[in-house]
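Researcher: Watch the backbone:
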Amino acid sequence: MTQDKSREFLHSGNDKDKFKFFFKATLLQQVNDLLQSIRSNLDAANALVDELESSIRPILKDLKELQSKIKNMEHIEEISQQVDQLKKKLAWTHVHEIDKELQEQSAKVENYRNRVPACQAKINLHLGKMEDLMERLSKKKTHMASIMEKTSEVRRLKEELQNHLRMSTKERLELVEEHSRKLNLVEKLVEKVRWLEQQVGDIHEQHIQNTQAEECEIKKNLKGLQDEVDAAHLVLARLKDEENALSDSLSMGMDEIRKISSEIETYERRRREMSSHVRELLQHQTNKVTAFGGDRVISLLRAIERHCNRFKMPPIGPIGVHLSLIHGDTWAPCVENAIGKLLNAFIVNDHKDSLLLRGCAKEANYNHLQIIIYDFSRPRLDNRIPSKMLPQTQHPTTLSVLRTDNPTILNVLIDLGHAERQVLVRDYDVGKAVAFDKDIANVKEVYTLEGYKMFSRGSVQTILPPNKRTRTGRLCSSFDNQIKDLERDKVNVEEHAEQSRRKKRNAEEEIRNLQDKLQTAKRRRLNAERDLMSKQLAMKDVKDSYAAESSPAPASTVDELHQEISRVQGEIQEKQILLEKLEVRMNEAESKVNELKLSFENLCVSANADIDAFGEAEREVELIEADLHAAEKGKIHYEELMTNRVLPEIKVEEANYQELKEKYEKSIKMASTICPESELEALGGCNGCSTDQLSDQVKRLTRILENESQKYADSIDDLRMMYEKKKRKIFRKQQTYEGFREKLNACQKALDLRWSKFQRNATLLKRQLTWQFNGHLRKKGISGQIKVSYEEKTLSVEVKMPQDASSGTVRDTRGLSGGERSFSTLCFALALHEMTEAPFRAMDEFDVFMDAVSRKISLDTLVDFALAQGSQWIFITPHDISMVKQGERVKKQQMAAPRS
């Protein structure tokens, strides 16, 4: 590689030319051309083999057609044999079916005959029961008559005491009412005395100046004004009462509206809850997995599927998906209450898998996932539990009503859920008896269908009420009934809500009317108050003027008032004496009432036993009469059954039996003419097929046989001879072509292998070139990179100068100085030299465009590189080489200067 060639390479602006130079210098071009020529030769060979194979393809097609015809002819022969066999089976199958019907009819006749003694035994049983019940009924009626005689006198005394108690209570209430009335009268008289005394004082304070005529006129005016004030007071009181009544009605109406609003909110909340529950059930019906965690469990399962390779053992869950109930959905509420907390859980094999599952749950936004760590290799535990460690009761346990195909889930329910010790019962009383009264061993908890949970720990007995927020039914086989019930309840709730809305609208209309009436009443009251105030002020003015002008009252008026006061005081003393007498009578009436109550209670206590006994006897008589009626009805039923059904049916079935027997004998004769029964046994018998099925098969195969026989005229032997002849004709060619194809496939496989190695070597050479080029540039403080693209067939060089020279990256070497370009050329040449093998290498005038510093660095780099490589190098330069040190492996030769 000469200096001119390197300069041409670095000065070229075409990346494709640079790539061609690199591709040829590294011998990649030669290898690529060789591989391409091999590929073209293989393609030509494949085309030739394809042409040879296509030449025998028509013969192969004929062979396939002959083989198909041979198979069809063999199939026709098989069908013919099957038809003959099926006809024999059909004849004897008909015989066997009639024989089977005959046996069934015989058993049926025997069964009907056995009904006669059974019906007679039932009739006798009911007769004996009726006699026993009649005897018990007569005894109970005699006992009731004796009890009636005892209780009649008690009832009479009870009625007398009730009458006396009623009269005494009435008398006591009348005395209390009279005492209250007298007491009110005394209070009024005391108030009157106080008023009279005040009036006497007022009369003494009056100033007597007016005449008798003026005094009468003023009193007349005052009386008129007082009447107007009283009338205004009455009107105002009536208006206030009306306003208060309207206010109370308005308040009651508002309370009613608030109550109705609360009911509407309650109905709406229930409707929303039902709608949400229906949506959840529909989702569970579509995908049962969502019943145990909702949409989050779907996301979690997808995350587990994405990371399945990281788990040591795939997680199992949710547990509820792998469980199902046995014998229907009866115990679904109890099972949900017992192990409901475990149904959403997942099971993993070890702690590492639990951490991975927790990460998947976090990825699926499934917080607080319950993870159970359990050994998957542990065998089933349900078969290993001794019977003495299980609850000794007839009631089912949680484990006995569940079914699962996964033994790990069963072990988790036993170890962690204690499902084998959880007893399920139907109601509260039975559960209480099982949990506390019967002292059954190995019972951990008892669950009822109502949702109660019962257990005892030592001497402490605990009963937990049903949890209203628990939703049951996730383990049910079908959600249709639950959805229908919820839809029906939802419709009822919506109807109630609509009724409440109508009531609320009516109540709001009434409230608006009441508010209008209340505003009107308030305006009328305010007007009445203003009118009363004006009249009171007018009367006050008149009284003030009268008080200023009136003279003291005559002494006769004062004396009359004193006499009136004395009379009223005497009346008060008389009333007080009467009050004392009434109190004494009240106390006597109270004591009499208490005595009568005590006597009545004692009589009731003494009569309760007889009354209870009589009631019990009445109930027993009713039960005996009901049992007697049922026994009589049963006797009549069985007598009618014997007469109308059993005996006629026996006659009909016996006639059918005789008819079948004659038919059986005829069918045996017909079948024996077709083939003996021993030949049918050699063919495998006719078990498992009915007459209709065999008849349909015979018809179908006969049609197929007729259709197929019309298609082929040649015999099967001729077809086989033609097939063997053609097969021998092309057998050798076919083997030869297959050998060619195998060799070509082996060559193609070897070519593909070498092409992949070639591409890998090209990639490694590209990296090696960049590394070595950059390594040589660093000796001068320069960094660079060579980018080679085999797809686009381009090569580009990038050089980055040090900071004191240039801070940018030069992508075109023509942008460098002469020394930098020459040094870059040297670095590129050395990088290529390291990638090639040659015993002799020469470089001519490689430093003519370098400065002294670059020339020294270049010479040192070349000498060190040549010493390290070990091959022979020849460097030719017109410059001074004194800076190169003489060595054992370094020889310098300087030519004389040319003569001028």
In short: Residues 28-205 form the longest helix (178 residues). The first strand starts at residue 208 and ends at 209. The chain has a mean pLDDT of 77.
